[in-house]
Amino acid sequence: MNFVLTEEQLAVRDAAREFAQTELLPGVIERDENQQFPAEQVKKMGELGFMGMMVDPKYNGGGMDTISYVLAMEEISKVDASCSVVMSVNNSLVCWGLEKFGTEEQKEKYLKRLASGEIIGAFCLSEPEAGSDATSQRTTAEDKGDYYLLNGTKNWITNGSSASVYIVMAQTDVEKKHRGINALIVEKGTEGFTVGPKENKLGIRGSDTHSLMFQDVKVPKENRIGEDGFGFSLAMQVLNGGRIGIASQALGIASGAMELAINYSKERKSFGKPICEHQGIQFKLSEMATNIEAARLLCLQAAAKKDRKEDFVKEAAMAKLFASKVAMETTVEAVQVHGGYGFVKEFHVERLMRDAKITQIYEGTSEIQKIVIAREILK
Ligand code: CAA
Ligand code: FAD
């Protein structure tokens, strides 16, 4: 496998790095503290083409490959994982699903505005009683002829209040189990659709996570994505790609923490020399660097397979499982390298440690990734 990056891929990485350092770094501590959604920053990400990176330019996308997406996600996540989760959901779960499975009318009406960043989207699968066990959907979409009547509650929805367009999974035919689930496009403001209060979270505090309530919401039939009963398959397929995005987010959180630890270890002195000259600190940095390189290769491998249109289910799950573990371990050690300074907000590593945890939970917990990997290797 050749991982020599092309000129275009390097340019995307450099543009994302420049953007993250100049536009995201100032204010990131305050946004986290105040749980402030990064609206301005997301708007700029749209202008720079980061909100629909892989979408065909004819639908206002960047026409880029998944490797470029991994590189951009890493750079943005090094600085602000609250921004990168907005980006990840919009790119992999919303735009990709619409482009691959939507009708031409849906692409014209929704995808063009989502890919340009004019509006953002949300992906709504999880429910109070259906998280890992995603086939147990309680939300119903009753077939009423030319529309569906949507009733139920979705939990933990990223971009819950900021999105304009929501892809909602709901059960139409219980007899058919997961093959009776549909994916419906619901617009914000539709009668009967309400957004619950914002969750007060440990990490990614800038992103807005909400419950969504649907009470007798009428969704026109033309808003169904794919054939009748295709919703669960759609959800699983977009999540395969989404897991590459979250793996790259975890990679970025880890590499951001390592960069901070390296810089700090060169400045901080103890026992008459910079702490980076103590072997105990060097060993921590060496472990971080090795794990991060391995995580990066797994992310790039999954992305390369997706770009070559090969099966990448196992590779995406492995990348997410491993990179999220590396993010957790690296950020804990980066705090340790900072000593007491690592425990306060100004030094950024405590935020990265808090942000790292979610990468082991959303888009399929680590336990679920292991189930996915086991099924693939035991096939
Ligand atoms: N890719 C494609 N299809 C898949 C798939 C995959 N990775 N995993 C399962 N499927 C298909 C199966 O082939 C099967 O389809 P058919 O019967 O039609 O062939 C169907 O889905 C059901 O699969 P299983 O019989 O294996 O179902 P299960 O109930 O035993 O397990 C599961 C399924 C893998 C555990 C699944 O429920 C799962 O992935 N759970 C985790 C849910 C998740 O990731 N949620 C994320 C929400 S979005 C989010 O979190 C966003 C964010 O934070 C930012
Ligand atoms: P549960 O499924 O109840 O799991 C509890 C524990 O049991 C976990 O450790 C799990 O791994 C373990 N477990 C469960 N089943 C098994 C098993 N078979 N074998 C071994 N262990 C098992 N969802 C969306 O649809 N859209 C979003 O935009 C979205 N954004 C999110 C943002 C945030 C900040 C959070 C916290 C969640 C978000 N989610 C979203 C939901 C997320 O995907 C779920 O939280 C996740 O899939 C786990 O589901 P659960 O919370 O119900 O945990």
Number of separate helices = 11
Provide the succession of SSEs: HHHHHHEEEEEEEEHEEHHHH
Uncertain parts:
none
Strand content range: 15-25%
Q: Would you tell me the structural class of the helices and strands?
A: alpha+beta
Terminal CA distance reads 24 Å
Radius of gyration: 21 Å
Query: How many beta-strand segments?
Result: 10
Mean pLDDT: 98
Can you list the ligands bound to this structure? acetoacetyl-coenzyme A, flavin-adenine dinucleotide
Profile the largest sheet. Answer: 4 strands, mixed
- Which word captures the global form? globular
* Order of strands, widest sheet: 1-4-5-8
- Residue share in helix: 40-55%
Protein name: Acyl-CoA dehydrogenase
Cofactor: FAD
Domain Acyl-CoA dehydrogenase/oxidase C-terminal: 231-378
Domain Acyl-CoA dehydrogenase/oxidase N-terminal: 6-118
Question: What are the SSEs and their pairings?
Answer:
Blueprint: H1 7-24, H2 28-34, H3 39-47, H4 66-79, H5 81-101, H6 104-115, E1 121-124, E2 140-143, E3 147-158, E4 165-171, E5 181-187, E6 193-198, E7 209-220, E8 224-225, H7 231-267, E9 269-270, E10 273-274, H8 279-307, H9 313-337, H10 349-358, H11 366-377
Parallel strand pairs: 1-4
Antiparallel strand pairs: 2-3, 3-7, 4-5, 5-8, 6-7, 9-10
Bound molecules: acetoacetyl-coenzyme A (CAA) and flavin-adenine dinucleotide.
Verbal overview:
It is a single chain. With 379 residues, the protein is α+β, with helices and mostly antiparallel strands. It is 51% helix and 15% strand. It contains eleven helices and ten strands. It has a four-stranded mixed beta sheet. It has a four-stranded antiparallel beta sheet with strand order 2-3-7-6, with helices on one face. The protein has a two-stranded antiparallel sheet with strand order 9-10. Helix 4 (66-79) packs across helix 7 (231-267). The longest helix is centred in the middle third of the chain and has 37 residues, at 231-267. The structure holds acetoacetyl-coenzyme A and flavin-adenine dinucleotide. Residues 6-118 form the Acyl-CoA dehydrogenase/oxidase N-terminal domain. Residues 231-378 form the Acyl-CoA dehydrogenase/oxidase C-terminal domain. This is Acyl-CoA dehydrogenase.
